[in-house]
Amino acid sequence: MHRPPIPRRRGPSGQLALSLLLAAMPGPGRAQDAAPLAVERGDVLSVSVLEAPELARETRVDAEGRIVLPEIGRVAVAGGTIDDARRSIEAALRAADIIRSPTVIVEVAAYRPFYVGGAVAEQGAVPYEVGLTVRHALLLAGGLDRGEGGGALSPTEFIEMNAEWRATTFALFEVDSRVARLQAELELRSDMAAPDAAEGGRDEARAIALLDAELLSDRLAIRSADQEHLRDLMAAVEFELDVLARQSANLDEAAALQREDLENARQLLTSGLTSQPRVRELEREQLQLTRGQLDVQAYTARARQNVETIGYELESADRTMQIGVRAALRDATLERARLAAELETMAARLVAAGIRLTDDARLSPLDPSVRIHRRVGGQEVTLEATMSTEILPGDILDVAIAVPPQG
After folding, report:
1. pLDDT score recorded for residue 365
2. Which of 93, 95, 376, 387 is deepest in the core (most CB within 10 A)?
3. What are the extents of the domains in the chain?
4. Polysaccharide export protein N-terminal domain: which residues (predicted)?
């Protein structure tokens, strides 16, 4: 009798991998840990009869759920267990009056295959063995297929891409920290809203944030010291103006008295009551007082000019600081936009290469998303599977690359 061929993967690599995987699997497997698998269409049964060795053979369960045996013909076995199939064959032998008390041994020679489709290198039927999981199935299907432009990276490429990603991420963190420092300095705040330095657990990031905070404190301290110095200068010049004002008043009073004395002396000189030298002496004293008044006026003018200069420097220092900080903030914002664009481009390249970003800002292969379509009680159900989900004969695995949203 012609037996339909059993589905096998072409080439020895799949079978060799299957053998190695099964040899490495711990424990007795599913057969002892769960309910026996039901016999279904596509399974290949090995049937032997101790009383009639010539009846021994391997036969496939056909589309109608039956097997064909010599002498007795078709026997329905689908839907039951191996023990149910054995009892059905024994009953058929007795009914055909071939063997009255037959001893039948039934084993599964080959389970019906399961099928793997989607993002795998080799789609199609895969021979089933007890204990296979989704992880085994992906390996037997040649691994994940990242699609056009994807594919596995070499170790060197992965290391280089990981280093580039981390370097760019760190550069962006540094710019974010700088922006936070500049914004705080512009608003004259001593606290800066630094980015989270704990992301990725990087000591360098925490060090950068700390240095920016210290730099902010130092720059604000320098500004405060400069402002205080200018205010002290302003107070000193204002005090000088006050002294000059009092000195000017004293000189004005002395000059008035001196003019009165000189006028009296001139009258006395006319009457012959004083000498010419005395008048000359008073005139010289008047010139000295006038010279002193002019000096005080000059000092007062310079002091007032100093007040204006210091006031301008007080205002100008703030404006100069704000202009410098705004220019630096503008440059940092542009740099941040450039780095963010680079990261977006890199993220697209990483997704195309099947790489995802982990919680610690490192790179790792994207996890596959696997759905299993399985017939249960005559109806098809869909299961969301993990790598450790066990596969059953006839399962259909739909594999996709789970691409996280890019934010």
Report:
1. 63
2. 93
3. 43-110, 114-146+361-401, 155-353
4. 35-108
The fold of the 155-353 domain, in CATH, is: Helix Hairpins (1.10.287)
Other C-beta atoms within 10 Å of 181: how many? 26
Q: Are 44 and 59 in contact (CB under 8 A)?
A: yes
- The residue among 16, 30, 10 whose CA lies nearest residue 129 is 30
Domains 43-110 and 155-353 fall in the same CATH topology: no
Contact 189, 155 (CB under 8 A): no
- The rounded distance, in Å, linking the Cα atoms of 130 and 36 is 11
What sign for the dihedral angle of Cα 407, 150, 199, 183? negative
Question: How would you class 144 by CB atoms within 10 Å of its CB: exposed for 0-12, middle for 13-18, buried for 19 or more?
Answer: buried
What is the predicted pLDDT for the residue at 18? 44
Question: Which pLDDT belongs to residue 182?
Answer: 94
How many angstroms separate the CA atoms of 346 and 341, rounded? Answer: 9
pLDDT of residue 7: 39
Alpha helix (H) residue ranges in 5-81: 12-24, 30-33
pLDDT for position 345: 86
Torsion of CA 325, 330, 335, 340, to 10 degrees: 120
Q: How far apart are CA 243 and CA 281, in angstroms?
A: 29
Residue 165: predicted pLDDT: 82
Tell me if 47 sits within 8 A of 104, measured CB to CB.
Answer: yes
Per run of 10 residues, the mean pLDDT along the chain (length 407 residues) is 38 42 42 70 93 91 92 91 93 90 92 92 91 91 67 68 83 92 92 68 80 92 91 93 93 91 89 88 91 94 92 87 93 94 82 62 69 88 92 92 55
Q: Rounded to an integer, what distance in angstroms lies between the CA atom of residue 380 and that of residue 398?
A: 14
